[in-house]
Design brief:
The chain is elongated, with a radius of gyration of 30 Å. The N and C termini lie far apart (84 Å). Helix content is 51%, strand content 8%. By secondary structure, it is mainly alpha-helical. A hairpin with a 2-residue loop joins strand 2 and strand 3. It has two domains: 35 residues; 53 residues, Winged helix-like DNA-binding domain superfamily/Winged helix DNA-binding domain (Arc Repressor Mutant, subunit A, Orthogonal Bundle).
Length: 123
């Protein structure tokens, strides 16, 4: 009985190797024809690790916004319009309210703004 199982397992392993080799040949042929090869999850072949020293070319510095940070923009807007709620402030800043809640939470923790009713005022 054990011999039959071993023989069946070996036959399946050989068939799997043959199928894997056939898949590699088909992928190679498809890439030579200019088609995209659909691959599984993971990093594509030939990609490098994310190590900064090994990258080709110089990394561009990040571009900063001209109007200052969201924190500064929010604080200035609250000073100009005391009592505005989160949705109105978010609309004026053209950002989503859930992001503004985080910014206002930080400003509130530092004591720069206070919540009054549904709106915020500068401290």
């Amino acid at each position: 009985m054990a011999d039959h199982l071993t023989d069946a397992r070996n036959a399946l392993e050989e068939q799997l190797k043959a199928l894997q080799e056939q898949q590699r040949r088909v992928e190679r042929a498809l890439s030579e024809l200019g088609g995209e090869v659909r691959r599984g999850p993971g990093r594509p072949r030939g990609s490098r690790s994310s190590g900064g020293a090994k990258r080709r070319g110089a990394a561009k510095p990040r571009r900063r916004r001209r109007g200052g940070t969201r924190r500064e923009q929010t604080l200035e807007l609250v000073k100009q319009n005391p009592g505005l709620g989160v949705s109105e402030l978010a609309g004026k800043l053209k950002i989503k309210p859930n992001y503004l809640y985080r910014v206002l939470g930080e400003l509130s923790a530092e004591g720069l703004v206070k919540k009054r009713g549904k709106g915020f005022v500068a401290s």
